[in-house]
Design a protein that fits this description.
The protein has 462 residues and is of the alpha+beta class. 50% of the residues lie in helices and 12% in strands. It contains 19 helices and 13 strands. The strands form four sheets. A six-stranded mixed sheet has the order 1-2-3-9-6-4, with helices on both faces. The chain has a three-stranded antiparallel sheet with strand order 5-13-10. It has a two-stranded antiparallel sheet with strand order 7-8. It is globular. Bound molecules: protoporphyrin IX containing FE (HEM). Residues 84, 100-101, 112, 162, 265-266, 269-270, 273-274, 277, 331-332, 335, 396-398, 402, 404-406, 409-410 line the site of protoporphyrin IX containing FE.
């Protein structure tokens, strides 16, 4: 009888696609890992098996979760029973080392506490001036009617902003070079997610060599930033100065290695994701004239004047637009964990060390939470509608103790950039372009996002 099955079998096997280990790289895993249609593959899995299923690779499961209640359990209520997944630590560890993103336990707690003041509300308000200033400087170089890759422009911009605000350095002159390094590093991280597959590994050897060179170049750059800072005798008050001044209970400063790991982590985590959120927002706004008209109506009272953080209160629709763009295209597609000991989740046993992949992308496109889920509709995030969403069904920044430390920074930055650009330019999708999302660690527009820059007529009174 079906009601006795679970009792008779204390270790039920969570249903899901079963993939013989030897075929993994040519069958189901190929589209997922190698990115032919990894996102479609995840959506299909959830449609077939529900919000909690296992991808069985031979006997090894990867648990795929897109259920808000389970998200709450894993990331919040039982957070102490999980660590970041080895898969991800292995993927980014070669450049992000033991920084905030990958660190664990008491050491992570201490480092997070050290960094936290740089992200306090009062502090990030001051960053708003840099955010708007650097956006204006970027667009001052744009020519009316020209075509640019907006994904690249946004990456340069957010890279400049995170470096100026957190480390008080201007890296904009090296932005193209850094952009190339970042791409090599992220492709390398993606490759390592596949690295249990020896055949795939052989294909990626060339990139491994490129990655080693890119990593070295980035380390040299970061060491230069740290050395420069050490020469300042005055307190610059930025995050790097705070990390340099920090002492442990024995009075020792942070090790050089740890310092570099923290800086690289913030350097990378602090720009790539926000740039993607913005690229997707411009892409979506360009296709929805009514949304753009509403944003312009919000901007009208400012009459072209430079925006500041305090103006954001009068620009609530800009927040709805950024949130909805991140619903459809969450820059961090998912969050991974592994249990630190054998546990049970929703009645199923999860063995210590097995990977749990929370798919933000799948959850954000679930019609149960978001009716007509593929439609871009910022109204979903009006105060009234947002309050009706189940808690943890919206997860762009993760949740619980490991929630993104830069979430308020990123929201403020994305809104200020979006609105400052729109004040001066209408961005039109270059004709004939097929825009697709690709998952290269973060969710980016594949091949960039070419847009034509149409200068707005000067507003009345300017
Ligand atoms: C739209 C922009 C951003 C998105 C979508 C995003 C997303 C995320 C997510 C999902 C996590 C949690 C990962 C997990 O639990 O495994 C995370 C962590 C983190 N993010 Fe962000 N992030 C963004 C912007 C930023 C910015 C601007 C910064 C810094 C300036 C930043 C720094 C970090 C750091 C250091 C962590 C690790 C925190 C910890 O574990 O203590 N992020 N981010």
């Amino acid at each position: 009888m079906s009601t006795t099955t679970i009792a008779a079998n204390p270790k039920p096997r969570l249903p899901g696609p079963a993939i013989p280990a030897w075929t993994q790289w040519i069958t189901n895993l190929l589209p997922w890992r190698v990115n032919l249609d990894s996102l479609g593959f995840m959506l299909k899995g959830a449609r077939q098996f529900g919000n909690f299923y296992a991808l069985w690779v031979g006997d090894t499961p990867i648990y795929v979760v897109s259920d808000p209640q389970l998200v709450r359990e894993i990331l919040v209520e039982r957070a102490a029973e999980f660590h970041k997944a080895d898969l991800v630590k292995h993927a980014v560890g070669s450049f992000a080392g033991n920084g905030l993103f990958t660190n664990e336990g008491d050491f992570w707690r201490r480092q997070r506490k050290l960094a936290q003041p740089a992200f306090h509300h009062g502090r990030i308000e001051a960053y708003g001036v840099t955010m708007v200033q650097q956006t204006q400087e970027l667009i001052a170089a744009w020519q009316a009617g020209e075509r640019r890759d907006i994904a690249t422009e946004m990456t340069k911009l957010t890279l400049g902003i995170v470096n100026k605000t957190l480390f008080n350095v201007d890296v904009r002159a090296q932005a193209d070079q850094i952009g190339e390094l970042m791409t090599v590093l992220l492709i390398g991280a993606n490759d390592r997610i596949n690295s249990y597959n020896p055949i795939w590994n052989r294909f990626t050897q060339q990139n491994q060599r490129k990655e080693a060179a890119a990593r070295q170049e980035l380390f040299t750059m970061i060491d230069g930033i740290i050395a420069d800072h050490r020469q300042h005798t005055e307190d610059t008050g930025d995050l790097l100065a705070m990390l340099l001044a920090a002492r442990d209970e024995d009075g020792n400063p942070m090790s050089e290695q740890q310092l570099r790991d923290e800086i690289i982590t913030l350097f990378i985590a602090g720009h790539e994701t926000t740039a993607n959120a913005l690229a997707w927002a411009f892409y979506l706004v360009a296709q929805h004239p009514a949304v753009e008209a509403r944003l312009m109506a919000e901007l009208a009272p400012f009459d072209g004047k430079p925006l500041g953080v305090r103006d954001l209160a009068a620009l609530p629709y800009s927040e709805q637009v950024i949130k909805e763009a991140m619903r459809l295209y969450p820059p961090a597609e998912g969050v991974t964990r592994q249990a630190i000991h054998d546990i049970e989740l929703a009645g199923y046993p999860i063995a210590k060390g097995h990977t749990i992949a929370i798919s933000t992308y799948v959850m954000h496109r679930d019609a149960k939470f978001y009716p007509d889920p593929d439609r871009f509709d910022p109204e979903r995030f009006s105060a009234e509608n947002e309050a009706k969403l189940p808690r943890y069904a919206y997860l762009p920044f993760g949740a619980g103790p490991r929630v993104c430390i830069g979430n308020s920074f990123a929201m403020m930055e994305a809104r200020l950039i979006l609105m400052t650009v729109l004040q001066q330019y209408q961005l039109l999708l270059a004709p004939g372009q097929m825009v697709r999302a690709e998952q290269v660690f973060t969710l980016r527009p594949k091949g960039g996002l070419k847009m034509t820059l149409q200068k707005r007529e000067k507003l009345h009174g300017q």
